[in-house]
Structures are given as structure tokens and as C-alpha cells.
Amino acid sequence: MIQVHEARVNTTTNRQNFERPDPVHYQAGDGDTKGGAAEAIRTGSIPGVAADPNVNLQNYMVDRFDAPAAPAAGQRDYNLIQVRPKTAYG
Question: Which pTM was predicted?
């Protein structure tokens, strides 16, 4: 179970979207969050995602979403951090 001070990290890169299986500290800095995601991709430690020793997430965005106070059935009940490429309109 994810603790209140933790979050799942969802990353989009190389036309793939995935979640790290292990939670991270929700208040970790953007650099630490991107660095951890990049290391997981480099080493191939994410199930179903091929290792990419040249991954670079330095110019990616980090978005944080608090857990809902009273999640509805089927809604996520944990904090979420998304690491994603910048968009043309972002």
C-alpha cells in the first residue's frame, strides 16, 4: 500500500507509457524524480519496458497530482507524479 507521503511515478517516453512498480517520496525534487525514472529505464528494471542506456529525461516536465480526498470507486487513491515530454503547446 502506498503511504500518504509517497507517490507512483508514471512516465511517457519513446512512445511508451508505464508506471514504476515502487513508490517514491511525493515531495522529491523534479531532478531526483526524473533521475530515478531515467535510471529505471536505463537498467531495464520496469516490467515490459526495454532497457535504454541512452535515455535522457532532463528536458521533461514533472506534474504532481494529489490523491483525491474521497476517491470514487475505481478512481486512484494515491498521489501521482507524471514525467512527460514537453508538448508543442505546453
Answer: 0.89
